[in-house]
Amino acid sequence: MSIACALCDAPGGRVVLQAPHWRIVHAQEAGFPAFYRLVWQQHVREFSQLAPADRAECMETLVVMEQAMLRHLQPEKVNLAALGNAVPHLHWHVIGRYTWDSHFPGAVWAQPQRSEDPARLQALEARLPAFEQELLGALPQRP
Amino acid sequence: MSIACALCDAPGGRVVLQAPHWRIVHAQEAGFPAFYRLVWQQHVREFSQLAPADRAECMETLVVMEQAMLRHLQPEKVNLAALGNAVPHLHWHVIGRYTWDSHFPGAVWAQPQRSEDPARLQALEARLPAFEQELLGALPQRP
């Protein structure tokens, strides 16, 4: 008997990279081009339920993502979050935030504070391939 | 010349524990009794800007907080988040969430989904001292 889980049954976004223990997906959330997720492959509910070596691997992968994001996408701030209330399968949101984005300085889950800026969103989207290319070069991949 | 920072100038909540590198505070956010913060003592903007040993210490402290919360407060889900858009001084939100809370399964920063439940909030508040006592026993403290 299996319980349906959105992150066991589907990638949860456009797959950028598959590693043995986790995958990185582009979240494709409208208004936030620099929104990625690090999804643990195995169904685990809470971060602290990972074995210590797995926690360290997860955290260091988040750090690689954040540092590459800071270099390539120059966000005002990076947001890291493992919530999982709706989908209790361990996944980290890694979101580059900008003073001009629709919700800044609120959380992306809060009410918008201004309209989207199509020109800036498009310019940011154009820089995602270089960011993703760095991730592909820096991180292990599933054979 | 110093730039004012809300987490350099004030604790950011009721202090539960001060360690050399970080402090744990109770966030005292209405409607969310199980809302704590792990605040890095030094002014650092992004998690990835910590030295590797400091990142590991920070992460393992989050794990102690999460595991103690699961044991003592039995949340439906723990939410971990380092946002810092408004106050870009590294701090992690550690929030125990419940199916009956005003925002579940939404983020605490989203719109409420139902009214607060005073009886359940009060019952949860009564269990915080045992949780905090475990943290004091499990974690290092500044002399």
UniProtKB/TrEMBL annotation, chains A, B:
A motif (Histidine triad motif) lies at residues 89-93. Pfam families: HIT (PF01230). It comes from Ramlibacter alkalitolerans. This is HIT family protein. Residues 38-104 form the HIT domain.
